[in-house]
Amino acid sequence: MKQIVILASGSGSNAENIITYFQESPGIEVAAVLTNKKEAKVLERCDRLGVPAFYFNRTSFTNSNAVVQVLKGFSADLVVLAGFLWKIPENMIAAFPNKIINIHPALLPKYGGKGMYGERVHQAVKENSETETGITIHYVNEHYDEGAIIFQAKTAVNPSDDANSIAEKVHQLEYEHFPKIIEKLLS
After folding, report:
1. Catalytic-role residue among 104, 138, 143, 177
2. CATH classification number, 2-186, choose in 3.50.50.60, 3.40.50.720, 3.40.50.300, 3.40.50.170
3. By CB count within 10 A, which of 39, 40, 73, 156 is most buried?
4. Annotation marks residue 138 as catalytic
């Protein structure tokens, strides 16, 4: 059985989508979800879906091997960032080479880097009058949003779109493609 561990910081809609996708998939399961926010909505989703979820603080993440040991304890074949905003420390990247992936709500290399997440990305896409945007699934390295690209999907941006409608289009791409790409990587 292949094991996925998800790291999430927020509401957990992508985490829930991944969990429910693999509940029907033999051979792959979400072993756990780890979060850096005690009040993250993803914890409620995990409780409802029966998936173990754990909180960790910044010290255990960046200044020790505690989170790496937890990931190893779950025998993580793939660590999936789903709305996780902290930079991944080098000890974790070294422990899981080419086994940590992220989804970014834009077509990298555009609109990536520190501070570029969520609505900030969609607002920048709108302000720059882009005609398309999308998602990028990529490996995680020591720099924000600079790991090798695994997959991209595009959607049109219409002049009438605002940041919210752009976000909705991007979320639909995330829900459609992220679980399938994870499955492909683990097959």
Report:
1. 104
2. 3.40.50.170
3. 40
4. no
